[in-house]
Recover the amino acids of this structure.
């Protein structure tokens, strides 16, 4: 069973590119509002549901937060590929660099989820979406490292890296 975001029903979130700009628990600056309650955010959901959702080739989007969850799942899979043979210290550097490097957003050629997201309505919206994705990439990288290197700082958990060989939604 595919897991969906509990934030699909949240009202009052800004919408851009047919996705929600959801509150996050993060120290990184960006357009996402700070989550005030001590409850899981969409990044926590993406990491909690990762092992189940990554096995599916099809994903039915039930709301704008599912698009964020979908993108975070794909990004987490890319991160795991990057740190497959790294120590925790090396992984921190690799994922920070990966988070801030140039990447595709909706509307760019090469964006992997073009059919799920709308194109930005203008330059300002594109800049906001890029900043939101960067903010999520940075935060997800930090949290993923804590999970993957929980038991051994010298090698990633095989329980996480075993998903590297699987294709998520027929994507790399």
């Amino acid at each position: 069973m595919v897991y969906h975001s509990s934030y699909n029903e949240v009202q009052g979130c800004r919408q851009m590119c047919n996705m929600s700009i959801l509150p996050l628990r993060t120290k990184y600056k960006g357009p996402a509002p700070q989550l005030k309650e001590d409850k899981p955010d969409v990044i926590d959901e993406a990491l909690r549901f990762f092992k189940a959702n990554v096995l599916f080739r099809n994903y039915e989007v039930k709301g704008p937060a599912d698009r964020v969850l979908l993108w975070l799942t794909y990004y987490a899979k890319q991160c795991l590929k990057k740190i497959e043979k790294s120590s925790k210290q090396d992984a921190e550097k690799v994922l920070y660099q990966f988070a801030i490097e140039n990447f595709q957003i909706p509307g760019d050629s090469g964006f992997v989820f073009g059919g799920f997201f709308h194109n930005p309505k203008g330059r300002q919206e594109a800049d906001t979406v890029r900043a939101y994705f960067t903010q999520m990439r940075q935060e997800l990288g930090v949290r993923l490292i804590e999970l993957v290197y929980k038991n051994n700082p010298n090698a990633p958990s095989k329980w996480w890296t075993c998903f590297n060989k699987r294709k998520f939604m027929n994507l790399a």
